[in-house]
Amino acid sequence: MMEWDKQHQQKEQEIEGNGNGNGGVGFVKVMTDEQLETLRKQIAVYATICEQLVEMHKNLTAQQDLAGVRMGNLYCDPLMTSVGHKITARQRWTPTPVQLQILEQLFDQGNGTPSKQKIKEITSELSQHGQISETNVYNWFQNRRARSKRKQQNATSNNAESEVETEVDSPKDKKKGPQDQLLQSQQNTSAQRAEDLCFQNPEMSSDLHFLD
Amino acid sequence: MMEWDKQHQQKEQEIEGNGNGNGGVGFVKVMTDEQLETLRKQIAVYATICEQLVEMHKNLTAQQDLAGVRMGNLYCDPLMTSVGHKITARQRWTPTPVQLQILEQLFDQGNGTPSKQKIKEITSELSQHGQISETNVYNWFQNRRARSKRKQQNATSNNAESEVETEVDSPKDKKKGPQDQLLQSQQNTSAQRAEDLCFQNPEMSSDLHFLD
DNA sequence: CTTTTATGAATGAAGG
DNA sequence: CCTTCATTCATAAAAG
């Protein structure tokens, strides 16, 4: 299944020379992450709309099938499969082993409360071992705590054994249950559908791929 | 409404680096004219697809009208509303793309103060595009503002490289640059129109394209 | 290469 | 408002 959001490292463009010798005040077309995110959402909206329209079409077509007025195949599914290239990948921070070790250590030291100031310090410290931002640190602690908690909670359910309320998911105490997959799918498909949504417009199919 | 042409100036963007010490080699997210052009085409393609689908839908609907088997208005926003009630209903509200677009639009309109009355109106409006409550709207605005703020603060602090910590966050840089407005508006317009499109709105085709 | 898992990041909601 | 938490989303990494 082609992921619409497949990773695709954004190439860092060289700022082109902007030939005007005007004191070097040339503009460059720059897009922030946020702007890209906006674009992404916009496209997602289109994808959703297209999906809805297709759905409507299918319904109508189905009706017509009953009436024996089938209009013929308007879809051409397989044609568009090569579309899935992404505008940008949302790059995500990955802690270096050293950073991770330090973080883990800090976490164990019991400071369950990484205050704002503390975060700054930690970030500063860790930045000597690799790229990192305060947000990264903040998120890390958030996640660490949440997941630690959940794990413990899961382990505790060993005693009470009170039936299926929490959906005891797996024998291997995974963190992710089948439920998640289910919920998740509804979103992902909406974004992807547009890809499959191909149409018999020649002009369209040729253009419908992203920067690569 | 079409403000695509309104803003063409580029804002020079901050260096995303947070790349510390490491020689201070920051990358900038740059998008070339060519890439932007590709994007435009891409979006235009979506617009075209939507148009075509609508056209088809109209045709089909017309046919069925003749047959006297009119189905009536099909449901829009199937993403959440119809699928939503499995046995395990989702406990947390998730805005549909369309709702999100509208919310973003409202947010951008600057009214930092969504009064109680306003909330009601918005909720009422949005409820046509999916389930939503006043609390949802309220929370959304709260969160949106808070996070927007934090983001700007974070983005601003990306200037230091050779020194360690510089505790800076004074500049009141606006969250959205001109470019954003550009993207925003176009996407809002499209979303709005496309929304109407969900119910066989005959006049959608006039507005559903942008980007020349 | 495709599928699965681990985990960084985003976000709706609650508390103060 | 701001902070915190719980849940979900998306993707890098690992497994197949």
UniProtKB/TrEMBL annotation, chains A, B:
<keyword id="KW-0238">DNA-binding</keyword>
<dbReference type="GO" id="GO:0003700">
    <property type="term" value="F:DNA-binding transcription factor activity"/>
</dbReference>
<feature type="domain" description="Homeobox">
    <location>
        <begin position="86"/>
        <end position="151"/>
    </location>
</feature>
<feature type="compositionally biased region" description="Basic and acidic residues">
    <location>
        <begin position="169"/>
        <end position="178"/>
    </location>
</feature>
<dbReference type="GO" id="GO:0005634">
    <property type="term" value="C:nucleus"/>
</dbReference>
<feature type="compositionally biased region" description="Basic and acidic residues">
    <location>
        <begin position="1"/>
        <end position="14"/>
    </location>
</feature>
<feature type="region of interest" description="Disordered">
    <location>
        <begin position="1"/>
        <end position="23"/>
    </location>
</feature>
<feature type="region of interest" description="Disordered">
    <location>
        <begin position="145"/>
        <end position="193"/>
    </location>
</feature>
<feature type="DNA-binding region" description="Homeobox">
    <location>
        <begin position="88"/>
        <end position="152"/>
    </location>
</feature>
<protein>
    <submittedName>
        <fullName>Putative transcription factor Homobox-WOX family</fullName>
    </submittedName>
</protein>
<keyword id="KW-0539">Nucleus</keyword>
<feature type="compositionally biased region" description="Polar residues">
    <location>
        <begin position="181"/>
        <end position="192"/>
    </location>
</feature>
<keyword id="KW-0371">Homeobox</keyword>
<dbReference type="GO" id="GO:0003677">
    <property type="term" value="F:DNA binding"/>
</dbReference>
